[in-house]
Hints:
single chain, mainly beta, 5-stranded antiparallel sheet
Amino acid sequence: TPPPYTGIWAPSWVADPDSGLCYMTGGATTPGAGNLSTVYVYNAVTNAWLPELPAFTSVRDFHAAFLFHRPSDSHKLLCVAGGNNGAELSSTQCHDLLEGSWNSENADLGALPGSLFGMGYTKRVTPEGEQLWMVGGSFNTIITNQTWYYDVSSGTWMDGDFFPSSPVFRTAAVTLNNDVYHVGGATSGFSYTGLSDKRID
């Protein structure tokens, strides 16, 4: 079931390397605040769209999307976090891929440390467990260079410190060899920087 739109503004993508499935969550049908709560599924192995998943609760764009295993039962969860729907959001919500349903908002990850949109997001796997990273963004309406991560093992949001380049939103993050990188972003409006940062433990 491919998206029926000409385009989708500012959705989030997350890929599952185990299954070859890619999930596109939320976004908007026109530039601006999010108005979609859809989840489209693309099979990169067969080059085909699969039936979409049930919609999550709060529409949002410029949000984060994660896949991780819940420690209590090893179920794989697809989660959305933060974003914008005319107001900055701090809510999170997770879909249990084994059960085939969304849990209530904030039930699995809790609320974010504050409202956040336009952040970079990535997952890091450490010897202690999985970490869900969020980098920069508009935090409580102020563009920031702060980072946070959700420590899956302890079930808590942790302060990941500040990256040294300027505060940015509409930015990106990626993990390579379990190092977290921040890449680019807008310092205001659509004024972009090409600066990047590497997280060193």
